[in-house]
Amino acid sequence: MTADKGEFKRDQNYLADRITADGRDGWPVEPGRYRLVIARACPWANRASIVRRLLGLEDVLSMGICGPTHDQRSWTFDLDPGGRDPVLGIERLQEAFFKRDPQYPRGITVPAIVDVPTGQVVTNDFKQMTLDLSLEWRAYHREGAPDLYPEPLRDEIDDVADKVFRDVNNGVYKAGFAGSQEAYEKAYDALFARLDWLSERLANQRYLIGDTITEADVRLFTTLVRFDAVYHGHFKCNREKLTEMPVLWAYTRDLFQTPGFGDTIDFDQVKEHYYVVHRSINPTGIIPAGPDLSGWLTPHGREELGGRPFGDGTPPGPPIEGEQVPPLAA
């Protein structure tokens, strides 16, 4: 939505129930009980799909995948046979929100976690969701799962993640949906000031905090990986492309080539979503043919900075059947 002075204001009121080990909100962690619903196009949902992969939760938390486009009503399961999610049996994610609250007044967003027995959405609070996958679902993590939210680093992770959310994750939207020149330029300046800050921070260290991948890296990656395909042109974030920012380009390629990151990205679905759905910005609905994606698989050199991607753990295995994305050509 666009508020006073043309500034984009994101509605951050979500269904805040949590699925916890002790079930204190009435939703205990149980293998097979819940279904994570995402869309490949959405950066907020992409966080959840990456964390689920890294932690090895595929066997205990199933995943439904919506198509890349939606109308004002809801995301839809048009990628599935018959246009219905095979587990939930619904055509639109909206149905699960209305099972929870028939008068649900807010946007139907992904990621969402649905209680399969009742068909109700439990939560769509994307910020808390990935933290709970790390902390509350620990009993079901795969052997060798990384610690993405290590206790000694949590304050620093939270601080960096807050800055990244304000100026980068949400910052590109504030630029793209600005309703005035003033609001656009304010968001544009904040975005690139923060990207410069990140470039300086990452110039001599492989990851954002410590020497391993953390929640902060996941949150930054999902915006950077979409930058040239969408935000540079569609959202007018065009001081530079990611490929023209050497440190961030190498950092993002490093993560892209790390199991659990690039194997969750479908660039065609990303582009189709933004350019088709956002008709106020792109009235024709034409999807750009570019950019060239071949560079994503080129050497990045970041291993020379040291660091251990998974700490004392190990990489996740390959994506399970039905969750693969189209591979990039080398």
Unreliable spans are none
Helix content: 25-40%
Number of helices: 10
- How many strand units? 4
Structural class: mainly alpha
Main sheet, how many strands, which sense, barrel? 4 strands, mixed
Q: Kindly, what is the distance between the CA atoms of the first and last residues, rounded to a whole number of angstroms?
A: 40 Å
- The amount of beta strand, in percent, is 5-15%
Characterization of this structure:
This protein is mainly α and 330 residues long. The chain has helices at residues 43-55, 94-100, 126-135, 154-169, 171-176, 181-202, 215-224, 227-231, 246-256, 267-277; strands at 34-39, 62-66, 112-115, 120-123. Strands 2-1-3-4 form a four-stranded mixed beta sheet. Helix 6 (181-202) crosses helix 9. It is globular, with a radius of gyration of 19 Å.
Compile the SSE list and pairings:
Layout: E1 34-39, H1 43-55, E2 62-66, H2 94-100, E3 112-115, E4 120-123, H3 126-135, H4 154-169, H5 171-176, H6 181-202, H7 215-224, H8 227-231, H9 246-256, H10 267-277
Parallel strand pairs: 1-2
Antiparallel strand pairs: 1-3, 3-4
Helix pairs in contact: 1-3, 1-7, 4-6, 4-7, 6-9
Brief description of this entry?
This protein is mainly alpha-helical. It is 34% helix and 6% strand. The protein is globular, with a radius of gyration of 19 Å.
